[in-house]
Structures are given as structure tokens and as C-alpha cells.
Amino acid sequence: MSSYGSGGGPKVAVIARINPANGEVYYATFLSAKKADDGKTNSLVVNTLSWNGTNLTVQAKSWWTPRRANTNSMNCSGSSPYQYTVIFTGDLTTVNSASANTCS
């Protein structure tokens, strides 16, 4: 994603790897939802983060619509928010997978 896109104040999540010794940010990325019809940013709220020693899993609520690993909008049915899961590599540079209930 090259930008947050336009929008009227939706929530996005910033995730960063931080050096605990000095607070320096090694790398950061962000997650957002994107309206498929007009490309505007929509809200995404992180519920939990989990680390398995290799990958970071983010569980979030995403409003219309969550994004695929390639950042394109998913196709969803039913009403939002959608339960959204994103799995990052440990360095946060790659999304291994992204999924949401009732979305493809």
C-alpha cells in the first residue's frame, strides 16, 4: 500500500518493530480497510496480536472491506465488522496470508 487513501477519519492500525533498549523503530507498517466502490479508507481495529517466534498474527475487526495480502479489497457478504486475520513475517515486510469471515 502506498498510502492510506482518502477518507473521513477512519481508524487504521500501525504495527512497528521497536528496539526495546532505545525505542528505535526497526520497521513499521499499517493495516486499513478499503471501500471497494470508491477506494476510500474504512476502519480497522486490532483486537489481538500473537507471536509464534516466526510470524506475527493480527486479529482485527475490519469494516467494509478488509484487504487481501496483495492489498486489494476482499469480496464480502453479510454486514461488517468482519473478523479479520493477517499473518506477517517476523520482520513485518511481507503478509503471508489475510482472511476474513464471509469474505473471499
Structural write-up:
It is a single chain. The chain is an all-beta fold and 104 residues long. The protein is 0% helix and 45% strand. It is built from no helices and eight strands. The strands form three sheets. It has a four-stranded antiparallel sheet, with no helix packed on it. A hairpin with a 6-residue loop joins strand 3 and strand 4. The relative contact order is 0.22. The mean pLDDT is 88.
Which residue ranges are poorly predicted, with pLDDT under 50 across at least 5 consecutive positions?
Answer: none
Strand content: over 45%
Number of strands: 8
Rounded to an integer, what's the Rg over CA atoms?
14 Å
Number of helices: 0
> Structural class of the helices, strands and pairings?
mainly beta
Distance between the termini: 19 Å
> What spatial order of strands do you see in the largest sheet?
5-6-7-8
State the order of secondary-structure elements, H for helix, E for strand. Answer: EEEEEEEE
Query: What kind of sheet is the major sheet?
Result: 4 strands, antiparallel
Question: So what's the overall shape?
Answer: globular
Nearest-integer average pLDDT: 88
Fraction in helix: under 10%
